[in-house]
C-alpha cells in the first residue's frame, strides 16, 4: 500500500534552546513560536506479517494547528502538585516535570537524547541542590560508596525519593560500590596531602594515631608490604603522584616521591614493575584477587541488605573481573527481593574487565566506561579506543552504557570547560553513548549546575547536528534474543525506527511492561524521541538511563486501541502532543506497528 502523506511540521522545532540554569524549573519562561512548513512525502508501508489483527495505518492529515501557535506555560502549570502527578489511578499519567517543560517548550524533535548521571557529594547533597540538578536534567543520581558514611548515603537516597514524590521528577538512584582494589586511607580527616619532589613517604597498613604523622599514608590492603618490591613504582590516582619504592621495614613501605602532587583521601593505588602494571595474574600478587573478591562480596551484601528496599534502581559494581561476579549478584538480588528490581551495571575499569568484556556486558544490565581507574590500568592513549569499543559492544548487546570520569574535570574549579573537554563530551555523544556522567564536577566541584548545563547543551547541539547531517553510522545490530518471539520484537523495533526516520515522524510510542521493547527501540537510535509507556514506577526510573527514551508511567491494558486513545487524550490534556502529530506505535502485547496522526 502506498499513500501520499501531507502534514505540517513546524520548521523551527529543532532550534537550540537557551536554558536558564536557574534553581527552579518554574522560573523558565519559554515561548516558542512555531511556523509551519508543508511537507509532502510518500509513505510506503507494508502489512505486518506477524499480526493478523492490525495492519499499519497511515492517516492523511490536513491539520495545521501548529501554524503560528504559541506554546507557553505558566508556572502553575508545571508546578504540578503531588496529588495530581502521583495518583497511580488508571486515569493519570506520570512524566518527569523537566521533560514535560522541555516538550512543551521545544517540541519533540529537540528533546535531549543523551542521559545524564550526576555523582552526589558534599556540593550537591542538600535538598535544594538536588532539586537544582533535577531541574537541570539529571536523570540518575549516583552515590559513590567509597565516600561518605552509610548514614549519609541513606539521607541522600531519602532526599532524592522525596524530590521525586514532591516535585514530580523521576530521578533514578545508582549506588556505586566500594571497589578500588588498593587505596589510601582517609588521611585522618585532612582534605588532601601534598607530596613534594624527593620527599620520603611511608605507606603502611598500620593504623596511625591522630593527628596523622607527617608523610605517612595508611593503606587498606594487608598484603601491601609483602607484595611490593624495592624498585617498584607506586602510582597514586593513576599517576597524579608517583613514588619509587626504596625500602621495606615490616609493614611499612618507604617511598621516594618522583612526581609531586596532591593526594586526595582514599585515592587509588597501583604499582608498576618493569613497565607493567602489577596485578594478580603476574603471580607476584597472589593474594590480591581473593582479598578483593571477598572484600567486594561483603560490601555488596551489606549494600544490598541495607539498601535494596529503599528504592535503589541501579547498582554499579566496581572493578568487575568476570561475568561470575555479576551473575552471583543478580541471583542474589533475584532471590532477595521479589518486587524491587535492581539493575546491575558493570564498571569497566580494569585490564581483566577488558579481557572478558563481552561476557561481562552480556551478564550485566548495563556498563560504565570508568575512565578514571581504567586510565590507571592501561596506557592513557588506549582509553579512547577502549571507550569506543565498550560503547559499541553495549549497543550491540542492547545494554545501556555510561561514559564516566573527567568529562568536565576543569569545571571542578572553573565555571567554563576547556575546549578539549567539550570535544570529549561531543565525542561521547557522537558515539551515541546512552549516558554521560559527572563525578567530582557535581560531587565536590564549585559549579555543579553549570557543569550539568554544559553536558546538556553540548548533547543537544551534537545530537541536532548529527540528525541534520543525516549521519547514520552503519552499525550491525545482531539478534540479541534467543526465541522466535524475541526476534519478532527486534524486527518490529528496527523496522519501526527505520520507518520513523523515513517518514520523519514526531515520536515513537512504545507500550512496554518490562521495558525491553523500549530498549530495543532505543538501541536503534532513531531520529525522533521515544515515548515509553510503562505501568510501574521502577521500570520508568530504569528507562531513564537509556538513550532517547522519555519514560511515562501510565496504566494500560492489552487493547492497543484503547491504550492509544487514552494516552493521546492524557497527553493532549497536558499539552504535550497535539492533533496532527505523526506517531508510530509498538507494544510488547501486540506484535504490530501502527502509524497514525494524533486525532
Ligand atoms: N560522598 C562523597 N563525599 C565526599 N566527597 C565525595 C563524595 N563522592 C565523591 N566525592 C569526591 O568527588 C571525587 C570524585 O568522585 P568519584 O565518585 O569519581 O570518586 P573516585 O574517588 O574517583 O572513585 P571511583 O573510581 O569509584 O569513581 C572523589 O574523589 C571525592 O573527592
Ligand atoms: C567512575 C569510576 O569509578 C572511575 O572512573 O574509575
Ligand atoms: K566506587
Ligand atoms: Mg573507579
Please mark out the parts with pLDDT under 50 across 5 or more consecutive residues, or reply none: 1-88, 280-292
Terminal CA distance reads: 22 Å
Assign the structural class, choosing from mainly alpha, mainly beta, alpha/beta, alpha+beta, or little secondary structure. alpha/beta
Rounded to an integer in angstroms, the radius of gyration calculated over CA atoms is 25 Å
Q: Taking all residues together, what is the mean pLDDT?
A: 79
Count, helices: 19
**What ligand species are in this complex?**
adenosine-5'-triphosphate, pyruvic acid, potassium ion, magnesium ion
User: Beta-strand percentage?
Assistant: 15-25%
Q: Please state the overall shape, judged from the principal axes of the Cα atoms.
A: elongated
Instruction: Provide the helix percentage.
Output: 25-40%
Annotation, overall tally of beta strands:
27
Task: Tell me what the structure shows.
The protein has 599 residues and is of the alpha/beta class. It is built from 19 helices and 27 strands. The strands form six sheets. It has an eight-stranded parallel β-barrel, surrounded by seven helices. Strands 11-10-14-13-12-16-17 form a seven-stranded mixed beta sheet, with no helix packed on it. A six-stranded mixed beta sheet has the order 5-25-24-23-26-27, sandwiched between helices. Strand 18 (314-317), helix 8 (323-336) and strand 19 (343-348) form a beta-alpha-beta unit. Helix 8 (323-336) packs parallel to helix 10 and helix 13 crosses helix 15. Residues 1-88 and 280-292 have low confidence and may be disordered. The structure holds adenosine-5'-triphosphate (ATP), pyruvic acid, potassium ion and magnesium ion (MG).
Amino acid at each position: 500500500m502506498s499513500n501520499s502523506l501531507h502534514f505540517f511540521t513546524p520548521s523551527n522545532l529543532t532550534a537550540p534552546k537557551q536554558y536558564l540554569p536557574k534553581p527552579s524549573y518554574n522560573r523558565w519562561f519559554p515561548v516558542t513560536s512555531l511556523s509551519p512548513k508543508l511537507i509532502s512525502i510518500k509513505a510506503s508501508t507494508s502489512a505486518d506479517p506477524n499480526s493478523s489483527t492490525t495492519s499499519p495505518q497511515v492517516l492523511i492529515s490536513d491539520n495545521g494547528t501548529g501554524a503560528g501557535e504559541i506554546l507557553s506555560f505558566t508556572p502553575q502549570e508545571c508546578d504540578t502538585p503531588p496529588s495530581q502527578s502521583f495518583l497511580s489511578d488508571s486515569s493519570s499519567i506520570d512524566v518527569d516535570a523537566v521533560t514535560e517543560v522541555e516538550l512543551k517548550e521545544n517540541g519533540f524533535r529537540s528533546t535531549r537524547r543523551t542521559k545524564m548521571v550526576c555523582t552526589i557529594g558534599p556540593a550537591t547533597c542538600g535538598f535544594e541542590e538536588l532539586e537544582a540538578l533535577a531541574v537541570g536534567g539529571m536523570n540518575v543520581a549516583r552515590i559513590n560508596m567509597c565516600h561518605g558514611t552509610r548514614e549519609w548515603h541513606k539521607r541522600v537516597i531519602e532526599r532524592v525519593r522525596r524530590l521525586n514524590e514532591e516535585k514530580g521528577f523521576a530521578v533514578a538512584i545508582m549506588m556505586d560500590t566500594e571497589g578500588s582494589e588498593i587505596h589510601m586511607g582517609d588521611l585522618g580527616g585532612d582534605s588532601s596531602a601534598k607530596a613534594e619532589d624527593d620527599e620520603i613517604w611511608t605507606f603502611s597498613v598500620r593504623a596511625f594515631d591522630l593527628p596523622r604523622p607527617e608523610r605517612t599514608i595508611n593503606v587498606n590492603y594487608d598484603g601491601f608490604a609483602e607484595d611490593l618490591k624495592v624498585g617498584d613504582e607506586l602510582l597514586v590516582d593513576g599517576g597524579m603522584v608517583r613514588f619509587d619504592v626504596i625500602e621495606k621495614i615490616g609493614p611499612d613501605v618507604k617511598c621516594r616521591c618522583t612526581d609531586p602532587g596532591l593526594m586526595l583521601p582514599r585515592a587509588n593505588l597501583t604499582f608498576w614493575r618493569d613497565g607493567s602494571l602489577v596485578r594478580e595474574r603476574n603471580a607476584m600478587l597472589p593474594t590480591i584477587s581473593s582479598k578483593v573478591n571477598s572484600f567486594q562480596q561483603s560490601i555488596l551484601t551489606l549494600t544490598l541488605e541495607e539498601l535494596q528496599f529503599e528504592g535503589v534502581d541501579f547498582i554499579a559494581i566496581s572493578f568487575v573481573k568476570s561475568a561470575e561476579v555479576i551473575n552471583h549478584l543478580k541471583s542474589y538480588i533475584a532471590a532477595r527481593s521479589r518486587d524491587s528490581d535492581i539493575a546491575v551495571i558493570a564498571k569497566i575499569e580494569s585490564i581483566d574487565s577488558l579481557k572478558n568484556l563481552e561476557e561481562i556486558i552480556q551478564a550485566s544490565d548495563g556498563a560504565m566506561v570508568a575512565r578514571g581507574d581504567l586510565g590507571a590500568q592501561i596506557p592513557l592513549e588506549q582509553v579512547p579506543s577502549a571507550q569506543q569499543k565498550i560503547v559499541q559492544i553495549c549497543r550491540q548487546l542492547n545494554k545501556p552504557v555510561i561514559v564516566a570520569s573527567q568529562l568536565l574535570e576543569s569545571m571542578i574549579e572553573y565555571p567554563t570547560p576547556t575546549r578539549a573537554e567539550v570535544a570529549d563530551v561531543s565525542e561521547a555523544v557522537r558515539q551515541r553513548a546512552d549516558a554521560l556522567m559527572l563525578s567530582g564536577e557535581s560531587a565536590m566541584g564549585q559549579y555543579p549546575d553549570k557543569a550539568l548545563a554544559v553536558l546538556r547543551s553540548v548533547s543537544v547541539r551534537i545530537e541536532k547536528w548529527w540528525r541534520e547531517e543525516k549521519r547514520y553510522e552503519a552499525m550491525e545490530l545482531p539478534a540479541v534474543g534467543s526465541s522466535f518471539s524475541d526476534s519478532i520484537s527486534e524486527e518490529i523495533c528496527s523496522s519501526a525506527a527505520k520507518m520513523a526516520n523515513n517518514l520523519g515522524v514526531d515520536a515513537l510510542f512504545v507500550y512496554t511492561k518490562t521495558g525491553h521493547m523500549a530498549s530495543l527501540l532505543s538501541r536503534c537510535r532513531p531520529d525522533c524521541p521515544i515515548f515509553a509507556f510503562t505501568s510501574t514506577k521502577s521500570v520508568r526510573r530504569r528507562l531513564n538511563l537509556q538513550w532517547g527514551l522519555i519514560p511515562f508511567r501510565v496504566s494500560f491494558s492489552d487493547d492497543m486501541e484503547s491504550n492509544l486513545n487514552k494516552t493521546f487524550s492524557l497527553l493532549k490534556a497536558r499539552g504535550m502532543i497535539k492533533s496532527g502529530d505523526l506517531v508510530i506505535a509498538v507494544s510488547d502485547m501486540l506484535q504490530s506497528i501502527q502509524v497514525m496522526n494524533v486525532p
